[in-house]
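Tokens in:
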């Protein structure tokens, strides 16, 4: 029951206040004193409900004969948890999903009298599991896709416009899969062969690593970082392959002085630190204190003395000087990583995209003076939206004639470079985290 009660508490909090989702999960884990196995199941249920929420609700409405039930948030969350287990989790027996949901209802007065409703609805779902309700062919295509793949309608319409039907369906399908978790090994200190030997029990090491410099290894099973000895000892960190290609775009040399403007949680900063060596340095900034703590934790755990974390707003950097390379991994809508953050699809709106573009443009303008002539600025987002990506860069280049767009070169894979010379990794084409980046060279002051 602890697992389901914890999952329900997280989902109820999300309904009341969607901010600080990760912090809420950590708090509930602490309160319920869950072990690693139970935490994984909570993640599976909570993120599963988030991924399929719209379809779960669409189906549940067919089994709830009174509309007043749909307005009862706690009831709906219990039903979502139960239905998700029945439909999507084959290892949990149907009877267990029903019984746990009924018991969950009895834990509070507001739903105790509805235990019978929950029992009846979930048993009907079990009986009709192979013929659950589907959107009608009479519905418009965007509405059918929205319900079937459980994405907000505005986003489905936007992607249909940008990517077409085939790619949009692939993107929606990908977003409903469990994300792969990758470890990025350190370049020095532990040989590749030794790392692979020690990681072989938990990672796929066949054929060596993948991604930039073959540094990335996919976990074979779901583990928390603190369960991994190589992680605790600083020989690796958790990072998606797409992030490595952004760093590759910087083309870091030994001795480079680098500014990482929005550095949290520190994955890119530590990779840059390895590449620029002890004669180089990385100034890693971020505006929020709790995120800067994560940068400091990552840097300390991995033992890098050439990374200097600083709490700062990229629009008003608290120092003067110049850098050989600047990385602006800008705040964005995150539409390229919604498979990794399924709750985000219910939080974002088109207004958020527009607000992000204003902040991104301001950050670009403010960091440009900190780059030496012939130096490089890499602008990156994990967004798929043109306003935040190529249109943002085109606008910057119109305002800043002292910068030019440089096309990426080896070792960045050609398959990740679009016709305009941008790095553009898309989930539906490359089966990984969506990432956009542009390499901008400063040709004069």
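Residues out:
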């Amino acid at each position: 029951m602890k697992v389901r009660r914890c999952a329900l508490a997280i989902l109820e909090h999300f309904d009341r206040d969607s901010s600080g989702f990760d912090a809420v999960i950590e708090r509930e884990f602490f309160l319920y004193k869950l072990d690693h196995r139970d935490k994984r199941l909570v993640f599976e249920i909570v993120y599963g409900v988030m991924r399929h929420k719209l379809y779960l609700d669409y189906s549940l409405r067919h089994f709830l004969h009174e509309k007043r039930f749909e307005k009862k948030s706690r009831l709906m969350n219990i039903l979502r948890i139960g239905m998700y287990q029945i439909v999507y989790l084959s290892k949990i027996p149907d009877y267990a999903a029903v019984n746990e949901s009924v018991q969950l209802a009895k834990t509070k007065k507001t739903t105790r009298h509805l235990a019978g409703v929950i029992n009846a609805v979930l048993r009907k779902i079990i009986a009709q599991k192979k013929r659950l309700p589907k959107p009608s062919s009479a519905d418009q295509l965007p509405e059918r896709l929205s319900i079937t793949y459980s994405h907000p309608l505005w986003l489905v319409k936007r992607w249909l416009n940008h990517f077409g039907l085939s790619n949009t369906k692939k993107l929606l399908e990908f977003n409903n899969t469990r994300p792969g978790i990758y470890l990025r090994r350190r370049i020095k200190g532990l040989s590749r062969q030794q790392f692979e030997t020690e990681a072989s029990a938990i990672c796929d090491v066949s054929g060596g690593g993948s991604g930039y410099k073959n540094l990335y290894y996919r976990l074979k099973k779901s583990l928390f970082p603190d369960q991994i000895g190589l992680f605790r000892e600083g020989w690796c960190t958790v990072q998606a392959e797409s992030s490595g290609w952004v760093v590759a775009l910087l083309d870091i040399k030994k001795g480079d002085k680098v500014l990482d403007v929005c550095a949290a949680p520190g994955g890119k900063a530590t990779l840059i630190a390895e590449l620029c060596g002890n004669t180089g340095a990385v100034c890693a900034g971020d505006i929020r204190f709790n995120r800067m703590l994560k940068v400091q934790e990552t840097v300390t755990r991995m033992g890098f003395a050439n990374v200097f974390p600083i709490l700062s707003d990229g629009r008003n950097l608290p120092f003067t000087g110049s850098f050989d390379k600047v990385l602006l991994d800008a705040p964005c809508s995150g539409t390229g990583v919604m498979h990794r953050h399924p709750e985000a699809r219910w939080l974002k709106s088109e207004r958020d995209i527009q607000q992000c573009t204003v902040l991104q443009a301001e950050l670009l303008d403010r960091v440009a003076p900190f780059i030496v002539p012939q130096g490089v600025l890499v602008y990156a987002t994990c967004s798929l939206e043109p306003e935040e990506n190529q249109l943002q860069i085109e606008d910057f280049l119109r305002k800043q004639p002292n910068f030019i767009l440089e096309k990426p070169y080896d070792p960045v894979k050609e398959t990740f470079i679009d016709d305009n010379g941008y790095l553009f990794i898309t989930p539906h084409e490359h089966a990984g985290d969506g990432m956009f980046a542009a390499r901008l060279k400063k040709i004069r002051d």
